[in-house]
Amino acid sequence: MNLLYLTFGSQIEIHYQANFSILSFLKESQQIDSITVMTDAPTFYRRLVPHVRLIVLDDKVLTEWRGPYDFLWRIKLRAISLLAEQLGEKPIVYLDSDTFLFGSAAEFKDVLRTNALMHENEGTLPSLKTKTERRMWQQIQSKSFGGVTISSKHCMWNAGVVAIPGNRNAQTVALALTLCDALCKEVVRRRLVEQLALSVALDEAYSLVAAQNWVGHYWGNKPEWNDVIARFCLGHFLKGSSFEQEIESIKSFDFHRIPLRKRRSRMHQRWVELADKLYPFRDVVHLKRS
Predict the structure, then answer these.
(1) pLDDT in tens, 14-66
(2) Could you give the CA distance from residue 117 to residue 207 in angstroms, rounded to a whole number?
(3) 257 vs 157, 218, 221, 225, 260, CA distance in Å?
């Protein structure tokens, strides 16, 4: 299978997340045919160059990929589309940076032969619970976008993993792009548009399976995972570890120890913000400039 990562922007966390994710797949490198990283920060991946192919993205390309309606996450669809054009009828696995392989890559690859995968099924469109999701359903139900009529049978799938079999991959991603642009044109709430476009397009073309039995996605607990991954990366940097030593280390990493998601009441954050205002830092001292 052919992995794809897309990283851009100034947050260094995105890049060490992606490095960690890549290492988690390379611990089963015999199952990986290629790894492509499309990024505007290639220096963060040079240590992996023997194992990954870098495609450098500049501001011009990223702006163009946002499309006619200037939608940020259309960039994800264009990245997948470009790789499909380059690889032809070969399976593609797009991964958000905040993912990792914990299950059997061989099993994942076997499922991908005849099915598409996204990270997890979040439910049918009418059953989704957030205000944004309910509003989106009101805007799109029974309407046709890109030749597809959105119905109550369609589901929203989490797009942290988007795995597409080799057959019909270019046509399927083209449909996702058409759906995305059509939804943006109709001024549908954008927060989940690219996720919806992929969910519908893959469901129309294939049987969809959840990837969560093989790939973890910690979108709901990034601070804790970021801390652990930063320690992992810094520890190996300070030790001067070889690539082989890092792979051995990640083979023994306990992926089950840290929650993928955890929630806290919004009141907690409000109290923290209030406490910061009531009790600001005092006696702040900087070095004096000469």
Answers:
(1) 999 999 999 999 999 999 999 999 999 999 999 999 999 999 999 999 999 99
(2) 8
(3) 25, 12, 12, 10, 9
**Per-residue DSSP letter, 289:** P
User: Facing residues of 95 across strands?
Assistant: 5, 161
Q: Which of 47, 39, 28 is nearest to 236 (CA)?
A: 47
**Sequence-separated (6 or more) residues with CB below 8 Å from residue 223:** none
HSE value, Cβ hemisphere, 13 Å, CA-based, for 126: 6
Residues 6+ away with beta carbon under 8 Å from 199: 118, 154, 155, 156, 157, 159, 208
Report the interhelical angle of 74-87 vs 193-205 (nearest 10°). Answer: 40
DSSP secondary structure string for all residues of 202-249: HHHHS-EEE-TTTEEE-TB-HHHHHHHHHHHHHHHHHHT--HHHHHHH
CA distance 37 to 55: 6
Q: What is the distance between the alpha carbons of residues 34 and 32, in angstroms, rounded to a whole number?
A: 6
DSSP secondary structure code for residue 110 in this structure: H
Domains of the chain in start order, with CATH, are 2-217 (3.90.550.10)
